[in-house]
Amino acid sequence: MIYCLGPKGSYTEEAAEIFSKIIKDKNIEYCNSIYEVFERVEQGNNNCYGVVPSENSIEGSVSLTMDLLLEFPVKILGEVDININHCLIGYSKDKIKKILAHPQALAQCRKYIKKHDWETESVLSNSMAVKKVYDMKNEELGAIASKKAGKLYNLNILDTNIQDYPNNTTRFILIGKDCEDSNDISFTNNDTTKKSTIIIELIGNKPGALYNILKEFNKKNINLTRIESRPSKTKLGSYIFYIDYETPENEKELINSLKNYVSNIKYLGSSNIFSKFL
Amino acid sequence: MIYCLGPKGSYTEEAAEIFSKIIKDKNIEYCNSIYEVFERVEQGNNNCYGVVPSENSIEGSVSLTMDLLLEFPVKILGEVDININHCLIGYSKDKIKKILAHPQALAQCRKYIKKHDWETESVLSNSMAVKKVYDMKNEELGAIASKKAGKLYNLNILDTNIQDYPNNTTRFILIGKDCEDSNDISFTNNDTTKKSTIIIELIGNKPGALYNILKEFNKKNINLTRIESRPSKTKLGSYIFYIDYETPENEKELINSLKNYVSNIKYLGSSNIFSKFL
Q1: In what residue span(s) does the ACT domain sit (chains A, B) (predicted)?
Q2: Could you tell me how many CB contacts below 8 A there are between chain A and chain B?
Q3: What is the C-alpha to C-alpha distance for residues A191 and B39, in angstroms, rounded to an integer?
Q4: Which fold has domain A1-82+167-180?
């Protein structure tokens, strides 16, 4: 079973369909929130997977996904990048007064919305925005979502590629339960580089202590692909760091060397990077 | 003139009042969005200031503020931390079906809202949420905001401290126009450590290249207080970094040494850290 952010027609669905082919499981169930996806994976068995957005090329990290990766006993099993083409969906462009969309979509189309002087309302997903516009049959409402979502509800595609920046890509990750009888062996993908993710809390919680961590990676010639800080939620100015790197041969040695500098470390696994053209 | 995110009763107002005493300017004008604050500062003269939230101890950076600090020709002149005590504001707790608030407040009270199974609607600020609940006179609506905002509109404070984590603090920054006849001299504050902020784009755009930057800080014994990455908005996996550090005596030397490793650097100035108890 694959749980993904719904309803049908979301960008997450596109990612879920790719992962569905890889893990050979056609059962996709739609959840109301990213939180619910994590909950279902935690409550399910080892054959339960979740698909959530982790990062967008314009808006950056999806903070909720980052926080839940720390909170729930899950690991990352794979990732895939999906091109985002935001469309304006509704009845008639001239009559629109308010735009409904997920907060990230609203942020990604900020200049476009500002130009038209429309009000905005955040909803839990873009496809939910389309559903709402359809359900309410109100010509003053418009939604931001994929062309697919607009067609699903028989609404008009009033404009395409309305995002402020042209290269808009969202990375989706496949998550699974973190348990002893590992579930990532079934779909190893030898062609691609594997990528690992760790979450660390530095001793003394000083951002400067990050230098020691990066020194270890540099000494071992390991490529970092992403460093992100998130608040530790204890006090302002205290952070935890999310680090993505190309999985080295002797990963255990790396993790052990980092332990000298961290008070906490969570290893989220080594995952496969999948192409969207399978 | 001080521009701050309105309407009256917002947490930003509290910060603006503190800055107002420091720069001895009592004219506070309320803007509809963070974007508008930056615009007004850019369009105004050297005596125009802006107050915007930059970071919260739970939710992390305010992405829009980060992006606009890069986009607009401004510098950071000061910062102050404000304790956040989110209250539930409305008519009667039992009748509430939907909560209005700024997306960050909704995120900070996620567990509380989930427990009550309320719907949510994002609005541009918490005080605007209170104003909406007041204007619509609808008992099914509630707002999240400060006690002050609730009292301003004569609504009931139905619950206090409803945020999921106890230590909820927001850092606000005072921004000014970046121009030759510097406007930060008038209120130097010799008692406190000064803090500088730079935004850098690493050569080759590789997160691993961050190691060279941290090495320079380490060599010069300069304390880093924050490192944040934001997407460069050109392609996924390409980042720019925001670095805060205690301003060293020879800052010019530091900046010059960093230039070997960066393709772009924006210096946002050295600013004063103000206490809220002035």
Answers
A1: 198-270
A2: 125
A3: 49
A4: D-Maltodextrin-Binding Protein; domain 2 (3.40.190)
Mean pLDDT, chain B, as a whole number? Answer: 88
Q: Give the right CATH number for B87-159 from 3.40.190.10, 3.40.50.2000, 2.40.110.10, 2.40.240.10.
A: 3.40.190.10
Give span(s): CATH 3.30.70.260, chain A: 190-278
What are A263's two structure tokens?
Answer: 């008070």
Question: What is the Cα–Cα distance from B205 to B188, expressed in whole angstroms?
Answer: 36
Q: In chain A, which segments carry CATH 3.40.190.10? A: 1-82+167-180, 87-159
> Does A204 lie at the interface with B, CB-CB under 8 angstroms?
no
Picking from A76, A34, A82, A55, the residue whose alpha carbon sits closest to that of residue A230 is A55
Q: What is the pLDDT of residues A34-46, one digit of tens each?
A: 889 999 999 998 8
What chain A residue is nearest to B83 in terms of C-alpha separation? A236
| Residue B58 structure tokens | 């739970």
Residues forming CATH 3.40.190.10 domain(s) in chain B: 87-159
pLDDT at B187: 52
Q: Is B214 on the interface with A (CB under 8 A)?
A: yes
What angle do the packed helices B63-71 and B34-43 form, to 10 degrees? 20
Model pLDDT for residues B134-154, shown as the tens digit of each residue: 999 999 999 999 998 999 999
Residue A193 pLDDT > 90, yes or no? no
For domain B2-83+169-274, the question of CATH label 3.30.70.260 is answered with yes
Q: Mind listing the pLDDT tens digit for each residue in A239-255?
A: 999 999 999 999 999 99
Catalytic residue list contains B12:
no
In B89-128, the residues whose Cβ lies within 8 Å of chain A are 103, 107, 110, 114, 120-122
Say if CB A23 and CB A49 are below 8 A apart.
yes
User: What CATH superfamily is the domain A190-278?
Assistant: ACT domain (3.30.70.260)
Chain B residue numbers touching A223 (CB-CB < 8 A): 206, 208
Which residues, including other chains, have CB under 8 Å from residue A161's CB and lie 6 or more apart? A85, A86, A87
Report CB contact under 8 Å: B114, A225: no
Q: Which residue from B42, B14, B38 is spatially nearest to B28, judged by alpha carbons?
A: B14
In this prediction, residues B234-252 reach a mean pLDDT of: 91
pLDDT mean over A1-7: 87
Nearest chain B CA: its distance from A32 CA (Å): 12
Known active-site residue B170: yes
DSSP letter for A187, please: G
**From-to residues of CATH 3.30.70.260 in chain B:** 2-83+169-274
Question: Residue B156 is encoded by which pair of tokens?
Answer: 């009931």
Catalytic residues of A: 170, 172
Q: For tokens 């609808």, what's the residue?
A: B138
Question: Letter for the amino acid at B62?
Answer: V
Q: Return the residue matching tokens 């393709």.
A: B263
d(CA B264, CA B204): 11
Instruction: Assess B185–A contact: CB distance below 8 Å, yes or no.
Output: no
Asked if the Cβ–Cβ distance from A208 to B214 is below 8 Å, we say yes
